[in-house]
Amino acid sequence: MNVIVAALGMLLLTTVPVLPAGFAQVKVPDPNGPPLEAGIWYPSDAPASSQRLGPYTQGVAVGGEVSGYGLPLVVMSHGTRGSFQQHYDTALALAEAGFVVASVTHTGDNFRDGSATLFVSAGFENRPRHIKALIDYMLAAWPQRGRLDPKRIGIFGFSAGAFTALVAIGGEPDLSLGRSYCAAHLTILGAAPPAQRLRDLWYSRPPSFTTRVSPPPSWWRPSAPCSRRKDLPASRPDPALAGRGR
User: CATH number, domain at 64?
Assistant: First the structure.
């Protein structure tokens, strides 16, 4: 009996359908740097198959037709030394839920090149600019831009990508807070064993951002007419997520 149950379980696992998502890899122009590598996931009814994406394998319809109109857009920013591929599983889940997802590899802060991370000044300027370039591309140059709703754009960021997301929507980082925190905890940082230092840093939760969200920085001037960052509406549940995750 146990053998039959196990065999049935294996059969079910092998017959689970792949996600109904299309995928495209593109180059996004960056006015102040080399073209940006990006990936785009979107709803599609085209047959999907297993495809390699760097170290990962995903079930997608490469170049498949986009399904639907008025689709919300989510842009993604990876962490330090990552790539646009890093959160492919989240992108697939969002595409299945009816979102278009565009993820960029940050020049100078990726697994191949660490010359412009957030530990140097260039990283603070480059990362938000890359997000602006990505949104501009999706709204003005992506061949399927007519499928998007330009009034529904969100951003997902992980680690350094979370910093990028906050700055992109108008947050103002106060770097002096980091310096004052390190000065106040110099003894902990220098004397404690590594594991203890990590624990102290984690639980002390130093502030790194002001809570105020101000108007976007001067460089935030998306070229597409419907991608204005001012006058953002109040946050509200998206209909595309209704009933999901319950």
Answer: 3.40.50.1820
154 beta partners: 74
pLDDT of residue 120: 66
Domain membership flag for residue 134: yes
Tally of structural domains, the chain: 1
Alpha carbon of residue 68 to chain centroid: 22
Q: Is residue 56 part of a domain?
A: yes
In a domain, 175, yes or no: no
In 3D, which of 88, 95, 73 has the Cα closest to residue 21?
95
Work out the average pLDDT over 205-215.
Answer: 44
Distances (CA, A) of 137 to 108, 185, 189: 20, 44, 43
Residue 94: give the domain boundaries.
Answer: 19-169
Q: How much is the pLDDT for 133?
A: 97
Roughly how many angstroms between the first and final C-alpha of the chain, as a whole number? 33
pLDDT of amino acid 211: 38
SS3 category, 234 = coil
Instruction: Give the pLDDT score at 113.
Output: 87
DSSP E strand stretches across the chain: 21-30, 33-43, 49-53, 56-62, 71-77, 100-104, 148-157, 171-173, 209-213
